[in-house]
Design a protein that fits this description.
Radius of gyration of chain B: 23 Å
Structural class of chain A: alpha+beta
Low-confidence stretches of chain B: 263-270
Distance between the termini of chain B: 23 Å
Structural class of chain B: mainly alpha
Order of helices and strands of chain B: HHHHHHHHHHHH
Oligomer: heterodimer
Helix content of chain A: 10-25%
Shape of chain A: globular
Order of helices and strands of chain A: HEEEHEEEHHHEHEHEEHHEEEEEEEEEE
Strand order of the largest sheet of chain A: 6-7-8-3-9-10
Distance between the termini of chain A: 53 Å
Strand content of chain A: 25-35%
Mean pLDDT of chain A: 87
Largest interface: A-B, 31 and 22 residues
Largest sheet of chain A: 6 strands, mixed
Mean pLDDT of chain B: 85
Strand content of chain B: under 5%
Number of helices of chain B: 12
Shape of chain B: globular
Number of strands of chain B: 0
């Protein structure tokens, strides 16, 4: 019956199951919506996920990412839309009828069962023979490096070990799709970083498809091959980590993912492949023409802090034309030393504040700039992103 | 550990006074149950005479047996119904009238026993039911069921919902998920609920006297009617036996819970 174990082995999982025609996504979400009372938690989300992808749903709390994940697992039924797994609509199927497994945020380990029985739980339900279960459990225990702890109960494990048990339990049934709900939120920073690496390595090795939900943009950027940013129940942008960071689609995304300097435009002028934009706080800025034509609406110019260079004197333009480089005069208003980099807040003569993140590449370069020192902040037109509000 | 060994004189005194307040009457009762004298208040040396008397008192033995049967069967039925009610209230969808239903379930907790007893008596008379073992059992079930529901519901409330979801995610249908995961985890609360119901039933005088019939008196009813004719030392012996029974039940229960919680530790060679 439905208890049958999905036949996606590690190898078949990479191809997304044998029935899947080339090019067809493993998972297709079509216009899915879900309301709780009058609150639209998920508001018409459409998304394709290919087999073997490591996809991250990123967004602030309450953006609907967890609700979307729970609809994929089957704990919530969508009000509208379809969820196709390998071409089959599973939107209304119950959790135990789906070849999908989930790793819960608080791990949800069964406290009355040992590590071994926790991992074997799903295999017993799948009706595997006793010998097969033992072999699979041993395989999973080795996979997540929990050898020797099989007989312990969850409350005798550390946070990191519990996280591994939860992962092994979710992987044991060899699901076509593994959902991870904030899997690393409960771990401390050091452990989180090493676990991120292990999860990525595991996903690559098994060739499985992972969907992770997180509110931590660094985590999403590190692990995922593609990120879907959610805002108020909708997908704001789906892109690779680099594209998301360097070419955010909106002002909101630019501010949500990493730090950014934003200047509102007051006038604009086309100059070949460049736009000359007048701002109130940073004077006139020359920026590269955006890939997509900008509308008539309000624009803003965005520059990431690490793209801003600081120097004591104005640089000599290499592009031959003085306007090729934006250089702004100001004084250092705040210094924040972070070890690898130092973030300077520069109070511009034109009125605005510009953040510059400067790598501390030389050990001897102690206090490169001091407070109230006059500096020139500069960046090229290609370092800027034009965003419509 | 350290704190315990560093009890101040004040703490020791207040502990002693508190324990004395609770257990001195019982201690005196136990001592006087071994009294050889016929007079309850006069000490006449050690003897097992009144225990012997009790075991030869057919009516008293029958009442004790009746009480035990009522307590076991009403506690069992109440545990079953109370657990089902608790599960429905904490796990079910938010159905209409849910608040009203949970309020109504807890009403017997605060209802004066006289009213519960009287209303049940009227019901049994109206139904023309023969009063005896079953009417007392049903009456005690209605009394103790809400206690079980309260105990089980509080345990269910503290249980993580995602445990059941995880079980479903791993291939259980909702019923199986409940049996495989939730039931083992609320088992201590169910056992506690059963014992609470058992002692409440064993203890009850008011409701039992309303709902019982001729020839089927429970132990409290029997004792109460004897005492009205004057306290016989035999009563002391019976009470001591009841205390011993309850003490044994409590010790077994605490041993069982300790054993189940230490099971994990012994399984893991550290």
């Amino acid at each position: 019956m439905t208890d049958e174990l999905p036949r996606t082995d590690a190898a078949a999982g990479a191809a997304g199951g044998d029935a899947l025609p080339a090019g067809q996504p493993l998972l297709r979400i079509e216009g899915v919506a879900k309301s709780f009372g009058t609150f639209r938690a998920v508001d018409g989300v459409s998304l394709d996920i290919k087999a073997g992808e490591f996809f991250a749903l990123l967004g602030p709390s309450g953006c609907g990412k967890t609700t979307l994940l729970r609809m994929l697992a089957g704990f919530e039924a969508p009000d509208e839309g379809r969820i196709l797994l390998g071409g089959k609509d599973i939107a209304q199927a119950l959790p135990h009828e789906r070849p999908i497994n989930m790793m819960f945020q608080n791990y949800a380990l069964f406290p009355h069962l040992s590590v071994r029985d926790n991992i074997a739980f799903g295999l017993k339900r799948a009706g595997l023979a006793r010998g097969d279960i033992a072999a699979r459990v041993a395989e999973m225990v080795a996979l997540v490096k929990l050898e020797g702890l099989e007989k312990r109960k969850p409350d005798q494990l550390s946070g990191g070990q519990r996280q591994r048990v939860a992962l092994a339990r979710a992987l044991a049934r060899r699901p076509q799709l593994l959902l991870l709900d904030e899997p690393l939120a409960a771990l401390d920073k050091k452990l989180r970083e090493s676990t991120q690496g292990e999860l990525m390595e595991l996903q690559r090795r098994l060739g499985m498809t992972f969907i992770i939900v997180t509110h931590d943009q660094e985590e999403a950027m590190t692990m995922a091959s593609r990120i879907g940013v959610m805002k108020a129940g909708r997908l704001a942008q789906v892109a690779s980590p680099r594209e998301l960071y360097e070419a955010p689609r909106s002002r909101w995304i630019a501010e949500f993912v990493g730090d950014i300097n934003l200047f509102d435009a007051e006038s604009r002028l086309r100059d070949g492949h460049r736009l000359v934009i007048g701002t109130r706080d940073a004077g006139t800025l020359v920026v590269a023409e955006p890939r997509e034509a900008v509308g008539a609406g309000k624009l803003s110019v965005a520059i990431r802090p690490e793209k801003v260079k600081l120097s004591r004197r104005a640089p000599v333009s290499e592009a031959g034309r003085e306007t090729a480089i934006n250089s702004l005069d100001g004084v250092v208003a705040d210094i924040c030393y972070l070890g690898g980099t130092t973030t300077y807040k520069v109070k511009l003569d034109s009125g605005g504040i510009l953040q510059a993140s400067v790598p501390n590449s030389a050990r001897l370069d102690v206090d490169a700039y001091s407070l109230n020192q006059h500096v020139v902040a500069w960046f090229t037109p290609d370092d800027c992103v034009v965003l419509s509000s | 550990m350290r704190k315990v060994s560093r009890l101040s004189h004040f703490n020791i005194a207040s502990l002693a006074l508190g324990l004395a307040f609770l257990y001195l009457p019982i201690l005196i009762l136990v001592i006087y149950s071994f009294n050889a004298s016929r007079l309850v208040t006069v000490w006449g040396g050690w003897s097992l005479r009144w225990y012997h008397e009790f075991f030869n008192d057919r009516a008293m033995i029958e009442a004790a047996w009746m009480s035990l049967r009522v307590a076991v069967s009403s506690a069992t039925i109440a545990t079953l119904l109370g657990t089902l009610a608790a599960v429905a209230l904490s796990r079910g969808e938010r159905f209409r009238g849910r608040t009203l239903f949970s309020g109504m379930l807890y009403a017997p907790l605060v209802m004066p026993e006289v009213i519960t007893g009287l209303s049940l008596l009227l019901l049994f008379v109206a139904l023309n039911a023969e009063r005896g073992f079953w009417t007392v059992t049903i009456a005690h079930t209605t009394l103790t069921m809400c206690f079980v529901a309260v105990v089980v519901q509080s345990r269910l409330g503290s249980l993580d919902r995602s445990l059941e979801e995880a079980a479903m995610d791993l291939g259980c249908n909702p019923v199986r998920a409940f049996v495989a995961v939730t039931l083992p985890l609320i088992a201590p609360a169910i056992v506690a609920g059963w014992m609470l119901a058992f002692t409440l039933s064993l203890d009850d005088l008011v409701i039992a006297s309303f709902t019982t019939g001729p020839g089927s008196a429970t132990l409290p009813i029997r004792i109460y009617s004897e005492v009205r004719l004057g306290v016989k030392p035999e009563i002391n012996a019976i009470c001591t036996l009841v205390i011993a029974l309850i003490a044994v039940v409590i010790v077994i229960a605490s041993l069982a819970s300790k054993l189940s919680s230490s099971q994990g530790e012994s399984a893991a060679p550290l």
